[in-house]
Amino acid sequence: MFASSSPGRCRGALLGRDRDRYGASVVRFVALGDSLTEGVGDPHPLSPNGLRGWADRFAKHLSTLDPTTEYANLALRSKRAHEVLTEQVGAALALQPDLVSLWAGGNDVLRPLLDPHSVLTPVDVAVEKLSSAGAQVVVITGFELTGSPALGLLRRRVLALNDGLREIAHGHAAALVDVSDPRPWSDRRLWAPDRVHPSPLGHARLAQAVATACRMPLGALPADPLPAWAAGSEPSGIRPGWRDEALWWREHAIPHVRRWVTGASAREDVVPKWAHWVRPARDFAW
After folding, report:
1. For residue 228, how many C-alpha atoms fall within 13 Å in the half-sphere facing its CB?
2. For the stretch 173-200, what's the b/e string if a residue is b when 16 or more beta carbons lie within 10 angstroms of its beta carbon?
3. How confident is the model at residue 13 (pLDDT cuts 50, 70, 90)?
4. pTM score, whole prediction
5. What's residue 127's pLDDT?
């Protein structure tokens, strides 16, 4: 179904095509996707949209390796895989990036009906376009969400999607960040209150995972950003009690369903926070 070349990694990711202009180790990094890459769950008052996220953290890390590193983030909440292809890939190609992350499919999984091919085909086309243009692509799998019994019902869909994403990454020699194993993500501190998006600690762990997949020096990125639990405070797992479950339904699950039914998310007037190149070493005040 998908391309079938040899598997790869972030080959020469610190050597951009414009190294004579930007420096020997510069990366021109573009992040594509939905709310997971936009940074939902990791608020920061100095960000244009009030969100930081793993991609901003990773870009900041790249800038510690080379301060001339440039970064753009075109990801937007509620976008489905075909919208990432039609609305973001062309804009990314126009920026001529060296490194592109692609994380899509989460919003497709949440819809009432799902045809995996309708998700995987646009992802495959997107990775093909980006790779053919000379960019190294990083593909990220979906989380197998365990924060609620209701979310567990989506597991079969996520499994099918992740199998296809692995095949796509393999076929196009893209780097793969596989976050499907729920065990490393079982600590509730890694999750925002909505149990779908990572918390600031979760986004920090994602930034570290991308750096690892790209075989980059971790530098200031911690190998494990989770601090130890205080004595006697460690919970038995990520799943809460029934009171917390009821609160989650009232404050997160039901409003999300209502927004989907009414189309409120699609009507939001949001724009990418970094639609053009920024230099994290110069422009990030955190």
Report:
1. 3
2. bbbbbebbeeeebebbebbbebbbbbbb
3. very low
4. 0.82
5. 98
